[in-house]
């Protein structure tokens, strides 16, 4: 597990020692490092019982857990692991990083610096998806910021400084809000409130006691630890994400009133959601994305769209809802509305673009809106129908994987033609099918995957999200389905103008030539996966099924046993107060009226 993070960092340190003029050696060394990370992840998929790293699709909980004391005085641990939510994203990160490094062969300026920063970025991205300590998660979240800033600001286009600073400021603003929420949650947490079994489920480090052996031994160690901390007069704070989830769903430690009558949980959810929504990105905090994509070099655009945007959705599903379920339930309409607004706005904005790359960038805003919508409806559907919850969450997760494939492919295809003609003006393209038939065929596959054509990877996630929303709001479901028409509009219009037009009208026509072998090695896997995930979606679902089923059931149980009785009690109290204040009703009649509410 540690190798996923620190092997790229070690490789970056070694590459920094190579002579700067050995460009090809540096490129091949960096590509080899990314391929080794990808092979390590594949090992867990192909050999689920491997001693190195493994993933069991039938296991709902965390796997390959590593827990070591890091800053014991504040209960901060070096705590790693992954489950069915994070493992598919780890695989996607390794895949896109390897392919994007193959696309980096066109980088000629400061190649050593580029490759070192690239590997640091890969280590940070892996750290985000496998960190289970909130403090550690935040560190890796920040680690990604600096290399991405320089990768855009040094190797980007004409307005690279503006785009890099805008990206930095937006992300830093979200990080500050996240840090405030993390501190709020940490200082309100108390491990004394958890039962021994909940401590075991959270993989809490038990004051140096190693959790090895049978479940009974685990429980016995947790019971001993629980007895020791129960005697303490001060709270036992924790950054353990799994323990914070248990505290959020099974205790009331985050329910204390904070500001304007809202609970600490409510404010924590809002701050965390804004921080993650900036990374998704959702309207109205999306404006950094088109500029960053347009100015970033092609491989960095692939990383941005294929991996970094997914971290926002991952944060929402891993942190916001499990830790702050009460706030998530109350703000469901807000989250769903933001998702639909992003879908519609992003699609209309893409229709208005004449820059090929900016059009693809706005399409990402629209497609990631499906993710927010699918997660937003999660804890607000009818209690007796967890199937809709399940469909929404799995649809959102599948959309993240499918979009990671299609968006990375679209940005790569834009980069292939840009490397030849050095412009992206849609109105000056045309007739590329006659000049580049192989390239055009593969480009149409990935663009149609982005369109959501049935049989390709973009369809399944969008369809499941729209279906899951129906019981929550038919209006939002219809609006989500309508976006498919807008998506078809800008995708088909772009394909017509670029590939099927009568003739090429732009500069450097003499440089247009067929896709080469290196570019084919990047495009073919993306096309194959786009088709594979569309035809056989269970190749993705099988890895997330057990974890999502368990997490959805946990929140369904919380809603039924905690949230609904709480709402009923609040409503009964309000009706009793109103009945007492109403003329002509005595206290006994008020009690009867309250008892006959909706209980």
UniProtKB/TrEMBL annotation:
Any one Gene Ontology molecular-function term assigned to this protein's record: NADH dehydrogenase activity
Subcellular location per the Swiss-Prot or TrEMBL entry: Endomembrane system; Membrane
Record key words, sorted: Membrane, NAD, Translocase, Transmembrane, Transmembrane helix
Membrane topology: Multi-pass membrane protein
The protein's name: NADH-quinone oxidoreductase subunit M
Signal peptide: none
Organism superkingdom: Bacteria
Domain NADH:quinone oxidoreductase/Mrp antiporter transmembrane: residue ranges: 131-190, 257-482
Cellular component, GO, one term: endomembrane system
Native source species: Blastopirellula marina
Record's keyword annotation contains Ubl conjugation: no
GO biological process terms on file: ATP synthesis coupled electron transport; electron transport coupled proton transport
Family the UniProt entry places it in: Belongs to the complex I subunit 4 family.
Parts of the chain that traverse the membrane: 29-48, 85-107, 114-132, 138-155, 167-187, 266-289, 301-319, 331-352, 359-380, 400-418, 438-461, 473-495, 516-536
Domain NADH:ubiquinone oxidoreductase chain 4 N-terminal: from-to ranges: 30-122
């Amino acid at each position: 597990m540690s190798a996923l993070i620190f092997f790229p960092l070690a490789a970056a340190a070694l590459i920094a020692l190579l002579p700067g003029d050995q460009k090809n050696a540096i490129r091949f060394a960096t590509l080899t490092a990314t391929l080794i990370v990808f092979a390590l992840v594949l090992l867990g998929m192909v050999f689920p019982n491997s001693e190195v790293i493994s993933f069991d699709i039938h296991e709902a909980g965390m796997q390959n857990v590593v827990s070591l004391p890091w800053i014991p005085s504040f209960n901060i641990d070096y705590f790693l692991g992954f489950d069915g939510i994070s493992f598919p994203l780890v695989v996607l990160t390794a895949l896109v990083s390897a392919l994007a490094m193959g696309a980096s062969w066109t980088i000629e300026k400061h190649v050593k610096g580029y490759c070192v920063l690239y590997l640091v970025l890969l280590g940070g991205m892996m750290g985000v998806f496998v960190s289970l300590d909130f403090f550690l998660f935040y560190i890796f979240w920040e680690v990604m910021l600096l290399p991405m800033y320089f990768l855009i600001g040094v190797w980007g286009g004409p307005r690279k400084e503006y785009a890099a600073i805008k990206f930095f400021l937006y992300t830093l603003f979200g990080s500050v809000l996240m840090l405030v929420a993390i501190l709020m949650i940490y200082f309100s947490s108390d491990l004394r409130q958890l039962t021994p079994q909940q401590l075991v489920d959270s993989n809490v480090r038990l004051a140096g006691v190693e959790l090895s052996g049978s479940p009974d031994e685990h429980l016995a160690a947790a019971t001993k630890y629980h007895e020791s901390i129960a005697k303490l007069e001060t709270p036992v704070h924790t950054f353990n994400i799994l323990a914070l989830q248990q505290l959020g769903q099974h205790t009331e430690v985050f329910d204390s009133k904070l500001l304007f009558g809202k609970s600490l949980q409510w404010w924590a959810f809002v701050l965390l959601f804004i921080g993650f929504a900036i990374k998704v990105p959702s309207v109205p905090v999306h404006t950094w994305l088109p500029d960053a994509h347009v100015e970033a070099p092609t491989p960095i655009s692939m990383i941005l769209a294929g991996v970094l945007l997914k971290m926002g959705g991952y944060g929402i599903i891993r942190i916001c809802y499990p830790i702050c379920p009460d706030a998530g339930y109350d703000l469901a309409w807000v989250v769903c509305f933001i998702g639909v607004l992003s879908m519609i706005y992003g699609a209309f904005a893409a229709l208005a673009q004449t820059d090929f790359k900016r059009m693809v960038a706005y399409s990402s805003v629209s497609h990631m809106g499906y993710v927010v919508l699918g997660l937003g409806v999660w804890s607000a559907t009818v209690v007796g129908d967890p199937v809709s919850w399940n469909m929404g969450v799995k649809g959102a997760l599948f959309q993240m994987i499918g979009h990671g494939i299609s968006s990375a492919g679209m940005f790569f295809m834009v980069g292939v033609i840009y490397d030849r003609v050095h412009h992206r003006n849609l109105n000056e393209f045309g007739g590329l099918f006659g000049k580049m038939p192989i390239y055009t065929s593969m480009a149409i596959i990935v663009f149609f995957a982005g369109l959501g054509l049935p049989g390709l990877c973009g369809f399944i996630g969008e369809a499941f999200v729209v279906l899951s929303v129906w019981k929550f709001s038919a209006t939002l479901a219809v609006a989500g389905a309508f976006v498919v028409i807008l998506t078809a509009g800008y995708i088909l219009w772009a394909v017509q103008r670029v590939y099927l037009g009568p003739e090429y009208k732009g500069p450097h026509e003499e440089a247009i030539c067929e896709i080469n072998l290196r570019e084919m090695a990047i495009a073919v896997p993306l096309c194959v996966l786009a088709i594979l995930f569309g035809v056989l979606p269970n190749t993705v679902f099988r890895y997330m099924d057990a974890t999502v089923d368990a997490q959805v059931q946990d929140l369904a149980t919380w809603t039924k046993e905690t949230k609904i009785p709480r709402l009923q009690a609040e409503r009964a109290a309000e009706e009793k107060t109103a009945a007492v204040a109403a003329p002509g009703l005595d206290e006994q009649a008020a009690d009867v009226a309250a008892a006959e509410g909706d209980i």
